[in-house]
From TrEMBL:
<dbReference type="InterPro" id="IPR006619">
    <property type="entry name" value="PGRP_domain_met/bac"/>
</dbReference>
<dbReference type="InterPro" id="IPR002502">
    <property type="entry name" value="Amidase_domain"/>
</dbReference>
<dbReference type="Pfam" id="PF08310">
    <property type="entry name" value="LGFP"/>
</dbReference>
<protein>
    <submittedName>
        <fullName>LGFP repeat protein</fullName>
    </submittedName>
</protein>
<dbReference type="GO" id="GO:0008270">
    <property type="term" value="F:zinc ion binding"/>
</dbReference>
<feature type="domain" description="Peptidoglycan recognition protein family">
    <location>
        <begin position="37"/>
        <end position="185"/>
    </location>
</feature>
<dbReference type="GO" id="GO:0009253">
    <property type="term" value="P:peptidoglycan catabolic process"/>
</dbReference>
<feature type="region of interest" description="Disordered">
    <location>
        <begin position="355"/>
        <end position="382"/>
    </location>
</feature>
<dbReference type="InterPro" id="IPR013207">
    <property type="entry name" value="LGFP"/>
</dbReference>
<dbReference type="GO" id="GO:0008745">
    <property type="term" value="F:N-acetylmuramoyl-L-alanine amidase activity"/>
</dbReference>
<dbReference type="Pfam" id="PF01510">
    <property type="entry name" value="Amidase_2"/>
</dbReference>
<dbReference type="InterPro" id="IPR036505">
    <property type="entry name" value="Amidase/PGRP_sf"/>
</dbReference>
<comment type="similarity">
    <text>Belongs to the N-acetylmuramoyl-L-alanine amidase 2 family.</text>
</comment>
<dbReference type="InterPro" id="IPR015510">
    <property type="entry name" value="PGRP"/>
</dbReference>
């Protein structure tokens, strides 16, 4: 199915209804401490560098970020996004003759971030995204038609963190303003030499004759600025809750009452465990997910005992049920056995392959934590 960019049809993109997501949303977080999101490089998304023309142009610094939307379809899967970026690249390069993709970065509705124009993400590369105001600005394109649908929470979070990181490299306050000089031209309302004062994160429509990034996208500019302003600060409870939206872990937490339920508030973003396991930690426990086990909560004494035994890498494997309340015991099923709490003594007993064994209580400092999963850099990138 072709999609439309700027009134022209571009074909060859694999689009279709996004499947119902049975797995948790992938966290966009967590690589180097100085970069807030994983960035899919040009080589990784398949930029045809032989098609690119001309050397990159550089400004003096990045003084503002500009938010766009692609005006393409919204029904795409995570696997479609790279093909959409390649199609935009081909359209901008071969059809419009711009020499390269217009934007400095692109963000899909799943929070995947794609490197845009060639020349270096940390440099003031001049794009062809915002007529009259391409120099000393840095453009992020939200993939989709944001006249028809609002940007998703992962998309907003990734775009905000990306802009916060990039503007911070040049000491720019995401909540500030800046005076920019118009280069004029047919794609802006400002004559050459005009110096409008603009937010340091503004929209394409603020300077051009366009509705980009769509009415629904434009309504969220304040949210993007807020996220950008605190990209390197510890996440709030709301940040963490937002980061879980869209997946099975969030759905299970909500079904249990959310922040008012037995698990309480989230205290970590979602993270990878062993194999295909994903998990998130809450004030009073955790939820673990895998394709085989689904999303299951672990809390209280059973959570502590399971931690002592090695979490999902221990002999029990992953939980396959929540707690089961019996008259004398609290029981929870795991892939290779059960954990059982005696209601009278609070002792915990494991049953693995028919063998019953007492689980020692946690040490004074609490159960073991697998530190390698949650570095400070990983925790801040929600």
């Amino acid at each position: 199915m072709p999609f439309t960019l700027g009134g022209a049809a571009v074909g060859g993109v694999l689009t279709g209804p996004a499947p119902a997501r049975a797995e948790p949303a992938r966290s966009v977080g967590a690589i180097a401490a100085d970069q807030p999101v994983n960035i899919i490089t040009r080589a990784q998304w398949g930029a045809g560098e032989s098609m690119r023309r001309g050397a990159p142009l550089y400004g003096n610094a990045v003084n503002a970020g500009v938010v766009h939307h692609s005006a393409t379809g919204n029904d795409y899967t995570p696997r479609d996004s790279a093909a959409i970026v390649r199609a935009i690249f081909t359209y901008h390069t071969a059809t419009l003759g711009w020499g390269d993709i217009a934007y400095n970065a692109l963000v899909d509705k799943y929070g995947q971030v794609f490197e845009g124009r060639f020349g270096g993400m940390t440099k003031a590369v001049e794009g062809t995204h915002t007529g009259g105001f391409n120099r000393n600005t840095w453009a992020v394109c939200l993939i989709g038609d944001l006249d028809k649908s609002a940007p998703t929470p992962p998309q907003l979070r990734a775009a905000g963190q990306l802009l916060g990181w990039r503007l911070a490299l040049d000491g720019v306050d995401p909540h500030g303003t800046v005076r920019l000089t118009s280069a004029g031209g047919p794609f802006t309302r400002f004559a050459p030499g005009a110096t409008p004062t603009l937010p340091t994160i503004f929209a394409h429509r603020d300077v051009g004759d366009t509705d980009c990034p769509g009415n629904a996208g434009y309504a969220f500019l304040g949210r993007i600025r807020d996220i950008a302003a605190r990209f390197n600060q510890p996440p709030t409870i709301q940040d963490l809750a937002d980061s879980l939206q869209g997946g099975a872990i969030y759905a299970r937490w909500q079904a249990m009452g959310g922040i008012n339920g037995p698990l309480g508030a989230p205290t970590s973003p979602e993270a990878p465990g062993a194999g295909s396991t994903r998990y998130a930690i809450f004030s009073h426990g955790a939820i673990y997910w895998s394709p085989a086990s689904g999303a299951q909560p672990v809390i209280g004494a059973i959570y502590d005992a399971w931690a002592i035994l090695g979490y999902e890498t221990g002999p029990l494997g992953l939980p396959t049920s929540a707690e089961i309340q019996e008259p004398e015991w609290i029981v929870q099923n795991f892939q290779h056995g059960t954990l059982n709490v005696d209601r009278q003594s609070s002792a915990v007993v494991s049953v693995i392959d028919g063998q019953t064994k007492a689980v020692p209580p946690p040490p004074a400092g609490g159960p073991p934590t697998q530190i390698e999963r949650f570095s400070p850099a990983r925790e801040r990138n929600v």
